[in-house]
Amino acid sequence: MTDTASSNGLTNALGNNPEADPEAGSANPRRERLRRLGKRALWRLAGGILVLWAVATLTFFALRLMPGDPVLAILGGPSGNPTAETIAEATREYGLDKPLAVQYGLYLGRLVQGDLGMSYSQHLPVTRVLAEQSWPTLELTFTSLALAWLLVLALTVLTAGRRRWVSTLASLAETVSAALPHFWLGILLLAVFAFGLRLFPPAGSDGWRTLVLPSLALAIPLAGFIAQVTRESLDLTLEQPFVLTARTRGLSDLNVRFKHALRHAVLPGISLSGWAIGALISGAVVIEVIFSRKGLGRQLYQAVQAQDLPLTIGISLVVAAGYVLANVLVDLLYQWVDPRQQENP
Amino acid sequence: MSEPKRLIVEGLSIEFAGQSVVRDLSFTLEPGKTLALVGESGSGKSVTARSLIGLAGEGARVTARRLSYAGRDLLALSERGWRDLRGREIGFVLQDALVSLDPLRPVGKEILEVLQTHGWGDRVSRGQRVIELLETVGVPDPRLRARQRPDQLSGGLRQRALIASALALSPGLVIADEPTTALDATVQAQILGVLQQIRQRGDSLLIISHDLAVVAQLADEVLVLRHGEVVEQGPIEQVLRNPRHAYTRSLLDAVPAEHARGTRLSSAQSGSSVQARAGADAPVLLKATGLGKRYVGPDQQARQVVDGVSFELRAGRTLGIVGESGSGKTTVARIVLGLLEPDAGAVQFLNVPWTGAGSGRVEEKTRRLHRRDISVIYQDPLSSFDPRWSVGQILADALDVAGIAFEQQRARIAQLLHEVRLPVELSTRRPLQLSGGQRQRVAIARAIASNPKVIICDEPVSALDVSVQAQVLDLLADLQASLGLAYLFISHDLGVIRHVSDEVLVMRHGKVVETAPVETLFDSPQHEYTRRLLGAVPRLPGAGATRVVPPVEPESAVLLFDESRLWKIAI
Description:
heterodimer, A: 13 helices, flat, B: alpha/beta, Rossmann fold, six-stranded mixed sheet, 22 helices, 35% helix
């Protein structure tokens, strides 16, 4: 991660090692590493399928436990005033007259085939709604995460272990930003940069300019949080003997930080990032409403209000799948940064 | 570059926040010579070494009348100038390569880094140089080792790799800060041999150690530091044969290998003997028969960590277990403590089954009855204490376990502290506020709190300076005499083992290679391995040994095996 060029240099010069290594159990440590990573990823994905099944089951039953008749919801809510015949017909059509267990079985069967049903409220296939709305949310979440990490790295690497007032000031900034609520920060950013300075559009979801303010609103609190952890870990790392060794080789301070200390310091932050994806998605619900963006968050908010069972389940599944995938990636990234972990599976 | 590479230090003083840590230090290191800085931890030797490469640390104020290397004024150097010097002209070797090399990178990359930083050669020649360097310091199969991380290498190999990185650009001066501390005796001898090469190449070496016996083998001149001041300075032979200062004298006395069993090491009552011990016919307290333990390593291969180990420990006596790291000593200790179930064999304690494999298995509930009769002292007491507890709380906790009523605990704590020669006022302090020696005394107090019959001592003095080590060993001897304790004493240090033991068990690769009464073992070792171990013990010249450092030989056994790691897996 830090210096691929030098690693290639070493590997090239060393050539491919022909002798087998009895201790490492493989002739090529790098290939062995990739094999282990792949195996691990497969296991984690298998676990992820279990998580998805659990999410599908929980949402299904939770929504059935909610007060209100789903048939009424299908037929346009309480104000729809349908006739008894229409109700009976809709009940049959959507299979709501069958026992709950049968409904659950049918529901799972359709799910496996990729059929998420029709949205009650929008009268569109759920898959189509998801296809339209997933991208803006994904874009927002990952931009926010990337932005948060950029802030973390800039803030911590440049200020950790410096003069006391510098790190105190930086760490104060982190604590404050970690405590900021999304909605408040979103409104503040709107007021200053959209309505006041007119630098960015206040609403919409087309083009990168509409992405700036909402992702900042999500990224700043997250960055504060991750930076607190990273700073502590960086401070600890900079005290380690190997950092002193690196300095005795004539490395500059910035090189010591980027080539040695950073790799150790980001480990806890990487672990947190898995959790952060979840937090960002739930934050997106509020932010998408405030900035009137397209996206799953807003859809979920509306679908729950309308008791739109298929859409709610569909969105929950997509969010859960994203969360599982993000965590597998985070796990692999962690293993890649810290190869020592692989030996203790 | 015609200027001779001479290091001149005149009137060096170092302060941290107004506190003086080094005062008025002066020496000259001629090219091709070796100078040793000797002193206890806190004597200012490490910070002196670091100030010579401009890394004394944040907040350090370094002043000197003169500080120059190869004719260059070091005091006038800019940060850029320092960086140019570091690695290129002055190489630096730290203690314990496991943490002194970046644990996430292959060692080859670390050596490569020196070459890259100073723009040496091109990509291909740098790669070749890395291999060449590893070969020079005696690393076998360097192409493979270059791609392994420090934790995948044995202690000796990674220390060699660390030295290789300091030698990468053939600096005229190498500074080695405790380069062999925490290494086994045989590995230590090999590393000293590698350092010897630097001398032979005509470069200078500044070696820092707390152990006079170690530097005696390399140095031309010695500087003895105490509390930041030089107490003695001169050619090595003169300082060793004819120490003028009492402190140097006490450092020499503290080397346990030089003193027969039953004599005191610490200077207070040097030479006076401790009371006689229990005889070889005392009742057997602990009896191990055919202990065995296997672990499955990360590569799915089973390793026999302990194999057919049997011994008897008699009341009031000391059984020493000696061996290099990875020999299975600690695993034996854990089995005997009943913390780890053996795969084979059994242990009897106080004539009842204590632990065993298969049908000999004993429930922890049964063991609990006699738990108070056996206790343990570890190498690093700090990590075995709850850092938030005071010394009083730590001891009270041990007394709770021993079933001492709350009302009597206060008096008993005072008594325990008295027994380990600590002032009662210390009971309100926390472990972090104590010195290493004081912590180990608290650990001993905790171990004797329940009036045990047996104490397992797992490398109890390995992390201590020689002079503190001497005091702790004396204390253990006194307690053995007054309380009739039996010790199972584990150490990699033959000097310590010789000093404390009645019988000695030599372990290698999990097996007992030799077991004998201590005099027999040291006077006429039967096994070839024992003889090799004995040969590697650093001795003071004049104590019967000649000043010989073994030639650089490639490390024979490469151990990828780390007991401390298995410890975690086993729990």
